[in-house]
Amino acid sequence: MTAQQPIAVLGGGSFGTAIANLLAENGRSVRLWMRDAAQAEAMRSGHENPRYLKGIKILPGIEPVTDLDSTLADCSLIFVALPSVALREVLQPVAGALAGKMLVSTTKGIEAHTFKRMSQIIEEIAPRARIGVLSGPNLAREVAEHALTGTVIASEDDDLCHQVQAALHGRTFRVYASRDRFGVELGGALKNVYAIMSGLASSLGMGENTKSMLITRALAEMTRFAVKLGANPMTFLGLAGVGDLIVTCSSPKSRNYQVGFALGQGLSLEEAVSRLGEVAEGVNTLRVLKAKADELQVYMPLVKGLHAVMFEGRRLDQVIEALMTGDPKTDVDFISTKGF
Ligand SMILES: NC(=O)c1ccc[n+]([C@@H]2O[C@H](COP(=O)([O-])OP(=O)(O)OC[C@H]3O[C@@H](n4cnc5c(N)ncnc54)[C@H](O)[C@@H]3O)[C@@H](O)[C@H]2O)c1
Ligand SMILES: O=P(O)(O)OC[C@H](O)CO
C-alpha cells in the first residue's frame, strides 16, 4: 500500500462515518461506500451524515461513493462497517475483487442460523484476503467527537495490524494490537446482549449495586461461553472484552442499551427497534447465543432470562426471582486457577 492510496470504508452508518473521519484526520483519502445514492449526494453537498451522525462535519478527504467495484479496485485497506445482516449480501457478489486485500471487520454481530463470526464469513467469501477485526469501547458519536478512545485491531497478520495502527492512530484514538481475532470478535458481539439487559435494568430504576452485579456476572457468563468455544479468557479482560462491556452496559448512547430501556418503558420489541431506527445487533445475537448455549450446554442464566422475557413471553419479575433464588455459585469460575 502506498501512502497515496485511498482507504475504503464500506457502510455509511454511524460507525463507518466515524472511522472515515479518523482516517481523513490522519491525512488519508477515504472512499466511504454506501448503497444509497441519495444519501451519498446529501453527504457530498451537506458535508454531514444527517441520518446517522447529525452535527458531525465530514472532512474533505472523504468521498461518499456508491460504486463498489471501483472502490475495491482502488483500495487495498478496506474497513467493513456494515450491519451483520448485510455483510454477506454486500461482499459475496464482489468476492473476486477481494483477493489479497486487507479487510478489517468492525461489525459486532453473529450470523443467524450458522453462528459464524463476521471475519469467518469474510474468510469464507475471500479465502485469499488478509483479515482483521477492529473492536473495543467505541461509541461512534464519542469517537467522532474526539473523546479519548482506545480500540483493538486483532489479526494473525502483524503487518495488517501495523498498517491499521498507522492509519487510525491519532491524538484522540489509540489502537492496540492483538493476535486473538477470535476472542476480540466474540467479545464485541456478545456484550451487546448484556447491554440490552442493562438498559432494561436502568429503566426500572435498579440501583448501582445491581448494575455492577449485572456487568460482572455478564463478564463471567460471556467468558464461560467463549472458553467453551476454545477462546483465551485473558482477551476478555482487555478493551474488546470488559472495556466494551462496560461502555455498552453503562451508556444511554448505546443502541442496544436503548432497546432494553425502551422495553422497560413498556414498548414491544418491534416498537423499540423501530423507534431506534439504527442497528442493535444484540437482538439477533441473543437469539443465536441462546440456541448455541443450549446446544453446548453452557450455563448462561442471564442470556436464558433475557431470552425468556424478550421472546418467550415470561414476566420480568418472575425471571428476576428465578435468577436471585437460583443455587449459590462460585464467583470467578471461568478462568483456570491452576498454579495459584
Ligand atoms: N455505532 C457504533 O457506535 C458502533 C461502534 C463499533 C461497531 N459498530 C458496529 O458496526 C456495525 C454497523 O453499525 P453502525 O452503527 O454503523 O450502524 P447504523 O445503523 O448507524 O448504520 C447502518 C448502515 O448500514 C447500511 N446498510 C444497511 N443494510 C445495508 C445493505 N444491505 N447494504 C449496504 N448498506 C446497508 C445503512 O444504510 C446504514 O448506512 C454494527 O455491527 C455495529 O455493531 C457500531
Ligand atoms: O450502540 P451499540 O449498542 O451498537 O454499541 C456501539 C459500540 O459497539 C460500543 O463499543
UniProtKB/TrEMBL annotation:
Reactions that this protein is recorded to catalyse: sn-glycerol 3-phosphate + NAD(+) = dihydroxyacetone phosphate + NADH + H(+); sn-glycerol 3-phosphate + NADP(+) = dihydroxyacetone phosphate + NADPH + H(+)
Pathway linked to the protein: Membrane lipid metabolism; glycerophospholipid metabolism
Subcellular localization, as worded in the UniProt entry: Cytoplasm
Parts forming coiled coils: none
Function in brief: Catalyzes the reduction of the glycolytic intermediate dihydroxyacetone phosphate (DHAP) to sn-glycerol 3-phosphate (G3P), the key precursor for phospholipid synthesis.
Protein's UniProt name: Glycerol-3-phosphate dehydrogenase [NAD(P)+]
Keyword NAD on entry: yes
Active site: 191 (proton acceptor)
EC number: 1.1.1.94
InterPro entries: 6-PGluconate_DH-like_C_sf, 6PGD_dom2, G3P_DH_NAD-dep, G3P_DH_NAD-dep_C, G3P_DH_NAD-dep_N, NAD(P)-bd_dom_sf
Organism of provenance: Azotobacter bryophylli
Principal cellular location given in the protein's record: cytoplasm
Keywords recorded for this protein, A-Z: Cytoplasm, Lipid biosynthesis, Lipid metabolism, NAD, NADP, Nucleotide-binding, Oxidoreductase, Phospholipid biosynthesis, Phospholipid metabolism
Pfam families, A to Z: NAD_Gly3P_dh_C, NAD_Gly3P_dh_N
Residue stretches making up the Glycerol-3-phosphate dehydrogenase NAD-dependent N-terminal domain: 7-160
Class in the EC hierarchy, top level: oxidoreductase
Membership in a protein family: Belongs to the NAD-dependent glycerol-3-phosphate dehydrogenase family.
Gene field: gpsA
The keyword Oxidoreductase belongs to this UniProt entry's keyword annotation: yes
Domain named Glycerol-3-phosphate dehydrogenase NAD-dependent C-terminal: residues: 180-321
